[in-house]
Design brief:
Elements: E1 4-9, E2 12-17, H1 18-40, H2 45-70, H3 91-108, H4 113-138, H5 159-166, E3 171-172, E4 178-180, H6 187-207, H7 215-232, H8 247-268, H9 276-279
């Protein structure tokens, strides 16, 4: 675990939070990859840049809003709602707002929605991989205690260790005192793998000539939402979360069912005719 990374630049030493660094790298990865792939497919550069800017800004805004809804006091000691620190975000709030604004912007600027959604989903899979590296190095988003072979033990003083100490879950050490960290599920690494698998799925459907544009995006959303739902049972929940236990499962179910319905409709209707959004450019 390396919560702080020391960089040497031109004889200057710079200490930066690993979570902050990889969050920035993830954002650059998603936006840069989206623009590069869209440019290769002949999308108008100016409108694509505006679209990326709108959806990119929507992610932190939506993520912060959902976090405040589910953890109303989570930022009290961190600078409040306007803090620029990369903390206090709920991923799906940002993704939902980005999808809504992305759809509206694509219609307003006459951009092909489904091909653009596929490109973004592929880029998002790579971005999830990058940001979870930061989570792992920082020690946040850690899992529950496990005795499975894949369990990882974070060092003394880590967030997982402190949580176990505070909840009487630490392992007995010298003189039988419970102060040793126990292994936990590698939830950050599992989500990295899920992002990679999602990107591979999107790439496969983007290259398939028998599938309509948008299939990759919808399959990615179904896959990653299903994984996220399952992974949530392995991860330690925020102690400041005030939502009922059924909130996120219902949200995940709604997203999965909606995407399944869209996937069936997309691939069964108008099979020989391009959709209107595909013709717009």
């Amino acid at each position: 675990m390396h919560p702080v990374i020391n960089l040497e630049l031109l004889n200057y030493s710079l200490a930066i939070s690993s979570y902050s660094l990889f969050t920035i790298l993830a954002a650059v990865t998603v936006m840069g990859c989206t623009f590069t792939l869209a440019n290769r497919q002949g999308f108008p550069r100016g409108r694509i840049l505006l679209w990326i800017l709108v959806t990119g800004l929507a992610v932190p805004v939506g993520a912060r809003l959902l976090y405040l809804m589910t953890n109303p006091h989570g930022l009290d000691n961190l600078g409040g709602i306007w803090t620029l620190r990369p903390v206090g975000f709920a991923l799906y709030g940002g993704l939902i707002l980005a999808v809504v604004l992305g759809y509206l912007a694509s219609r307003a600027w006459r951009l092909p929605l489904w091909p653009l959604a596929d490109i973004t989903a592929f880029s998002l899979g790579l971005g999830i991989m990058v940001v979870r590296i930061g989570c792992f190095l920082n020690g946040c988003c850690f899992g529950k205690i496990t005795d499975l072979a894949w369990g990882i033990t974070f060092p003394p003083g880590s967030q997982a260790h402190i949580y176990q100490l505070n909840h009487g879950l630490a392992k007995a050490g010298w003189f039988g005192l419970p102060f040793l960290a126990q292994p936990v599920h590698p939830t950050q690494l599992l989500e990295m793998g899920a992002g990679l698998i999602g990107a591979i799925l999107v790439a496969y459907f983007m290259k398939s000539k028998n599938r309509r544009a948008g299939t990759g995006f919808l399959v990615f959303t179904i896959w990653f939402t299903s994984f996220r739902w399952g992974n949530s049972y392995l991860r330690v929940a925020s102690s400041q979360n005030v939502t009922p236990p059924y909130f996120y499962p219902l949200l995940y179910i709604a997203i999965i069912l909606l995407c399944i319905a869209l996937l069936v409709f997309l691939n069964q209707s108008h099979t020989n005719k391009p959709s209107m959004v595909e013709e717009e450019e």
